[in-house]
Structure formats: structure tokens, C-alpha cells
TrEMBL record:
Record keywords, A-Z: Cytoplasm, Methyltransferase, S-adenosyl-L-methionine, Transferase, tRNA processing
Lineage: Archaea, Methanobacteriati, Methanobacteriota, Stenosarchaea group, Halobacteria
Protein's name in the database: Class I SAM-dependent methyltransferase family protein
InterPro entries: MeTrfase_TRM5/TYW2, SAM-dependent_MTases_sf, TRM5-TYW2-like_MTfase, Trm5a/b_N
Database matches in PROSITE patterns: SAM_MT_TRM5_TYW2
GO biological process: one example: tRNA N1-guanine methylation
Domain SAM-dependent methyltransferase TRM5/TYW2-type residues, every copy: 86-343
One protein family per Pfam: Trm5_N
Annotated Gene Ontology cellular component terms: cytoplasm
GO-annotated molecular function: tRNA methyltransferase activity
């Protein structure tokens, strides 16, 4: 079966494999192959894989290759006889099943399989409240793995593009599906930028940005998320560059009036309500990453209009990127606008 893989010279294989593992980009379901001095390492996320090996010694190439299924790895599908819908966050597997018997069967299969899993959670509510958290049912726990950990069944360490994030799914909002999007934004950030993340959560934007040499202010209404953000800044050795603040960004904005070179506005259902604050935070020139959810017929227009209404004429507004992040619901898209605000020249001068 042809699968995406990274091809590198054999002598660089272990370094490449380690970098891919740290970026959570390894495909554990297929075997690594070696041929004519080249090692072919299967990957689960081609974009993350490309970035993970970019800085390594030696040439690397993203390609596809017919690789055998890994022998000896027992998957939940092997046990169940069908492919269940699963999402992995650190060593937690998340399912979304209304039928408790089916949920229990899937959870038992996950624990029995060879996946490195400590607990299986079933979504028990929709995202709710100002802090965007949900209820969870702990369906199964691997007792041996739990005995070796001091974390609760809903708490885990998620690794993403070389960074790690401690978080509790029962107390904070976090989506691993946005990893590629977060990386897209972080790659635009330069050293010495002043970046303000208006809805920072546990720090998945802020901490990688700080690792690039930026100064970060991370604000979130959820006090628990802010505590995790501070801990994650320490874990990733950027605590000197990250100021994490618990509170409504509209209330703390006065302390950073005109400060930001870049703003992250990842609150897609209601970011428009915070645009006046964003404009107040913006410096002489500022890039805003504005997230929105709109109908596919006009997924960017409402956000552009809202930004122009808030920023003009105090700023010249230039839309640099109209980017579809993912499908959100039937006929609805989660999108991002990268918009540059620039103070116009003083006409009297």
C-alpha cells in the first residue's frame, strides 16, 4: 500500500525518526523500509513531517512508497472487526458514541490494543460556556499505565511540532485538529515581535511563538487554562518570554494599548465582538489572525467587513490571506483571515 513517507540517507535515519516522533508525525501502522542506502519512514502528517526534518543534516524528501503493514501491532479495528472513529490527544483516546454499549466495546478494544493509551473518554456534552469546555465520561482506564502516571484520566501531555502541552480536557478547551493551522501562523512570526494571543488557552499558539524569539502576552478567561499555560511555558523553556494573564481581554487591554505587532483571535464564533479591543491593542503596524465560522457561500466577506468597520479609517486594512482551516459543519467553514493593519501617513506632514 502506498503511504506518505520521508526518505533520508540511512545514516540520518535515527535522527529523522526521532524528529518525526517528537512532532507526532510518525505512522505507527506501517513498517520502515531500507533500500539502496535510503531509509523510508512512514508518516501520518506530511506537513508536520516536512517541517520536522527540515533542519536535520542531509537531504530529505517527502514521497510515497508501498510499505507493509506493521506486524505485531494489534489495533482496535483488529479486535472490533470495524474501524472506529477515534481521536488521540497525548495518551488519551477520545470517542463520540451515543450508544453506551458501543462506547464500552470500543473503549475495551482500545485498551486491549497496542496503542499507547492510558484512558478512553467519551464526549458527554457539546462545548459549552464562556470557557468552551465539555463534559466527559471516562469509559476505560489502562490500570498499568495509570499506575505509572500522576495525571488524572482526563489530563494528558500532548506533543505538537516539538513542543509539549500539559492539559486537562475536563477543564480547558483544546483541539489537536488545529495543529497544522497553529504551525502555519507560528511560522510567520519573527524574533522580537510583540504578540498578543487574545484567547490563549493552554498556550498552543503562544508557546511556539515564544520559541521563535517573540515576546508573548497570553490572555484567557479560563483561570485553569492560564495556569496550564504558565506551566507549559516552563516545560518548553519560554517562561521568561510569556506573560499569561487570566481575565477578559477587554478588561486587560488598556495595559497593552498600541503594543501588539501581531494578534491571534482564535474565538471563531464571536471574535467579531472583540475587534474594537484588537484595534486598540494594535501598534503602528499589526497583523491580525482572525478566525471565523461562516457559510461556504461567503466565508470571508463578513469577517473582512467586520475588520474594516472596526479599524478604518484609523488603519489602512490589507487582507493578506484568506485561508480555509477546515470544514466545520455542513455548508459551514472554519476560516482564518490574515489581515495587516497599518497606520496611514500623517497627511498634514
Amino acid at each position: 500500500m502506498d503511504v506518505p513517507c520521508v526518505a533520508v540517507a540511512r545514516q540520518h535515519g535515527e535522527a529523522a525518526r526521532s524528529a518525526l516522533a517528537e512532532a507526532d508525525a510518525l505512522d505507527d501502522d506501517h513498517e520502515i523500509a531500507v533500500e539502496d542506502g535510503t531509509i523510508y519512514i512512514p508518516v501520518s502528517d506530511p506537513d508536520a513531517a516536512t517541517d520536522a526534518v527540515a533542519a536535520l543534516d542531509g537531504d530529505s524528501e517527502l514521497t510515497t512508497r508501498d510499505l507493509p503493514t506493521r506486524r505485531g501491532v494489534r489495533t482496535p479495528a483488529d479486535i472490533l472487526g470495524f474501524e472506529p472513529s477515534l481521536e488521540r490527544i497525548g495518551d488519551i483516546v477520545v470517542i463520540d458514541e451515543d450508544d453506551p454499549d458501543r462506547a464500552a466495546a470500543i473503549a475495551d478494544a482500545v485498551i486491549e490494543s497496542d496503542l499507547p493509551v492510558r484512558s478512553v473518554l467519551n464526549r458527554a456534552s457539546k462545548i459549552k460556556g464562556e470557557c468552551r469546555v465539555r463534559d466527559w465520561e471516562v469509559v476505560a482506564v489502562d490500570e498499568e499505565a495509570a499506575a505509572d502516571s500522576d495525571l488524572t484520566p482526563t489530563e494528558t501531555v500532548h506533543r505538537e511540532y516539538g513542543h509539549e502541552f500539559l492539559l486537562d480536557l475536563a477543564a480547558v478547551y483544546f483541539s489537536p485538529r488545529l495543529a497544522t493551522e497553529r504551525h502555519r501562523v507560528v511560522e510567520q512570526i519573527s524574533a522580537d515581535e510583540q504578540v498578543l494571543d487574545m484567547f490563549a488557552g493552554v498556550g498552543p499558539f503562544a508557546i511556539p511563538a515564544a520559541s521563535r524569539g517573540a515576546e508573548l502576552v497570553a490572555v484567557d478567561l479560563n483561570e485553569t487554562a492560564v495556569e496550564y499555560c504558565r506551566e507549559n511555558a516552563r516545560r518548553n523553556n519560554v517562561d521568561d518570554a510569556v506573560t499569561a494573564i487570566a481575565g477578559d481581554v477587554r478588561d486587560v487591554g488598556d495595559d497593552y494599548h498600541g503594543w501588539a505587532d501581531r494578534l491571534v483571535m482564535n474565538l471563531p464564533h464571536s471574535a467579531n465582538e472583540f475587534l474594537a479591543t484588537a484595534v486598540a491593542l494594535a501598534g503602528e503596524e499589526c497583523v491580525i489572525h482572525y478566525y471565523d465560522i461562516q457559510h461556504e457561500d461567503d466565508s470571508f466577506g463578513p469577517g473582512i467587513d467586520a475588520i474594516r468597520d472596526a479599524a478604518e479609517p484609523a488603519y489602512d486594512v490589507r487582507v493578506e490571506t484568506e485561508h480555509v482551516v477546515r470544514s466545520y459543519a455542513p455548508h459551514e467553514l472554519n476560516v482564518c483571515l490574515d489581515v495587516r493593519l497599518t497606520k496611514p501617513d500623517d497627511e498634514s506632514g
